[in-house]
From TrEMBL:
Native organism: Collinsella tanakaei YIT 12063
Enzyme class, first EC level, given as a word: transferase
UniProt-recorded name of the protein: 2-isopropylmalate synthase
Region feature Regulatory domain, mapped onto this chain: 392-520
Subunit structure: Homodimer.
This protein's record includes keyword Oxidoreductase: no
Matches recorded under InterPro entries: 2-IPM_HCS-like, 2-isopropylmalate_synth_dimer, AIPM/Hcit_synth_CS, Aldolase_TIM, LeuA/HCS_post-cat, LeuA_allosteric_dom_sf, LeuA_bact_synth, PYR_CT
Gene coding for it: leuA
Family assignment from sequence similarity: Belongs to the alpha-IPM synthase/homocitrate synthase family. LeuA type 1 subfamily.
A GO MF term: manganese ion binding
EC number, as in UniProt: 2.3.3.13
Entry binding sites for Mn(2+): D14, H203, H205, N239
């Protein structure tokens, strides 16, 4: 059995330190329930002395967690902080006090204004004092990543001797290279007496984008607890992201000789919950939980994934509760992806038909970021309309605006492919286009209805126009047209209606001629 790595979730403490992420007790409780469901080992619920609200949150989370996990409150190495944390955790089944102080030259000299000896004395006192209230005391050596390693060994040794059950080695400013930080952990493990009886924890920040790497390198060097947050929330660039370390350990259990007890299928839900409560969106390309983590939008990748998912996915989306892989249709998609999606929508085409559809798809895709199902339906229907065409659109251009007179320049193609070019004015751009169409296609009709709607989302949505025209004999014909440009969709819709009218009139004329011939 591999080593168990405890997951210490600090979303509700360090995560909440993200600007704009503060949460009330009710919200913290909702997240805490999800953390319990996900089986984290420790919930750092807050900093009890910092406010009555945080005190209450720690107290309530201690109550709901029961013995499912340890609940921890953070303190400075200050007696009053420790007393208040102890009080907040009084009714918790598995309470932990997390106390400590800065250990780097900068923290000692500029922030705490203490000598190394004073800091060691304060650390010993804080750990011992906390042990009066709880059996489980975690000592943090803040900014250990920039500390003098000899001093770090001494203060950690003192904390272990004073009764710390966990020693936390933070890279508070995310300064280290993973291998350097790993070497620090290994050195502590080799030199601190009694460290084998305590848990070595790491708390790494993402200032250089390496929080996850720092945590994993620490595990390789003997750490058995990782402090992390959902979505990597936390001070400045954030903390180690829980979902990343959990899945990295999950994927490389053998190499790391490590596992966690996290229910990975709950990761996506946890991410969405934290994002909706804090109002902090997850970047789409975020590992594991980003909206694009299992989305494929380029043809070569889509073809691969459709043939075998693991050609481009190392994680089964179901393993993190993310539903399934997504094929995003875009101008970079190839035949395989489009054929697949069309199949899912219930369309089957022969190769020749499909090639026309694919070319229309590329035209639409070049104008839009993403092609949705509604766009595909529209492309299919547009093709059906084009195949029934008598008059087709060659080109249309309008100029309009204040104080211009709306003008349309139009080229229509007849059934023989001959071009007919006209120009017309109107009360608006569509009116100008329709007047131009009437100059070429001379059939008696009244435009009785005109409606336009966006087929999909966004400013680049296809606009679908529906028109109804009434012929001289009172018969009504409907026409539809779609395009990213509503002048073009309006023109196509009108032509579609007129083509129907003309072909119906031709059918009727042919029927009449046949009837006359029969009668003679
Ligand atoms: C790396 C981290 O993420 S640490 C956690 C950060 N979290 C927080 O700060 C929680 C929210 N903080 C608060 O509510 C407040 O800052 C409190 C209640 C903790 C303290 O408030 P105040 O008493 O007003 O102090 P203030 O915040 O102005 O300054 C911090 C003081 O604590 C001292 N201090 C900082 N860390 C420690 C420590 N670990 N142990 C002992 N003293 C410390 C500072 O040196 C400073 O002391 P000084 O006033 O004598 O110079
Ligand atoms: C208080 C400690 C654990 C911390 O948050 C840090 O060092 O970043």
């Amino acid at each position: 059995m591999s080593r168990k790595i405890a997951i210490f979730d600090t979303t509700l403490r360090d995560g909440e330190q993200s600007p704009g992420a503060s949460m009330n007790t009710e919200e913290k409780l909702i997240i805490a329930r999800q953390l319990v469901r996900m089986k984290v080992d420790v919930i750092e619920a807050g900093f009890p002395i910092s406010s009555p609200g945080d005190f209450k949150s720690v107290q309530e989370i201690g109550r709901i967690a029961g013995d499912a996990c340890t609940v921890c409150g953070l303190t400075r190495a200050v007696d009053r902080d420790i007393e208040v944390a102890a009080e907040a955790l009084r009714t918790a089944k598995c309470p932990r006090i997390h106390t400590g102080l800065g250990v780097s030259p900068s923290h000692l000299r500029d922030k705490l204004r203490m000598t190394e000896e004073q800091a060691i004395a304060r650390a010993i006192h804080a750990v011992k004092y906390a042990r009066n209230f709880v059996d489980d005391v975690e000592f943090y050596a803040e900014d250990a990543g920039r500390s003098d390693q000899e001093f770090l060994v001494r203060i950690i040794q003192a904390a272990v001797k004073a009764g710390a059950t966990v020693v936390n080695i933070p890279d508070t400013t995310g300064y280290n290279m993973p291998w350097d930080f790993g070497a620090r952990i290994r050195d502590l493990r080799e030199r601190v007496d009694g460290i084998e009886d305590v848990t070595i924890s790491v708390h790494t920040h993402n200032d250089l984008g390496m929080a996850t790497a720092l945590a994993l390198e620490s595990v390789r060097n003997g750490a058995t607890q990782i402090e992390c947050t959902i979505n990597g929330l936390g001070e400045r660039a954030g903390n180690t992201s829980l979902e990343e370390v959990v899945m990295a350990i999950h994927m490389h259990e053998e190499a790391l000789d490590a596992h966690t007890d996290i229910v990975t299928t709950e990761l996506t839900r946890a991410s969405k919950l934290v994002s909706s409560i804090t109002g902090i969106n997850v970047q789409p390309n975020k590992a594991i939980v980003g909206a694009n983590a299992f989305a494929h939008s380029s043809g070569i990748h889509q073809d691969g994934v459709l043939k075998a998912r693991d050609t481009y996915e190392i994680i089964d989306p179901a393993d993190v509760g993310a539903g399934g892989s997504q094929i995003i249709l875009s101008a970079r998609s190839g035949h395989a992806a489009l054929r697949h999606r069309m199949g899912e929508l219930g369309y089957a085409f022969n190769d020749e038909e499909f090639e026309t559809i694919y070319q229309s798809f590329l035209e639409v895709a070049d104008k839009k970021k993403e092609v949705y199902d509604e766009d595909l339906e529209s492309i299919v229907h547009e093709r059906e309309r084009v195949s029934a065409a008598i008059w087709t659109l060659g080109a249309v251009q309008v100029s309009c605006g204040f104080p211009l007179t709306p003008t349309a320049t139009l080229t229509l193609l007849d059934e023989e492919g001959a071009e007919h070019k006209v120009c017309a004015f109107g009360t608006g751009p569509i009116d100008a286009v329709y007047k131009a169409v009437n100059q070429v296609v001379s059939v008696d009709n009244d435009l009785s209805e005109f409606a336009i709607q966006a087929v999909t989302r966004g400013i680049d949505a296809l606009g679908e126009v529906t028109v109804r025209v009434t012929a001289a004999d009172g018969e009504v014909y409907t026409g539809r047209g779609s395009d990213g440009d509503i002048v073009v969709s309006s023109t196509k819709a009108y032509l579609n209606a007129l083509n129907r009218l003309i072909s119906h009139q031709r059918e009727r004329a042919a029927d009449n001629a046949a009837a006359t011939a029969d009668a003679q």
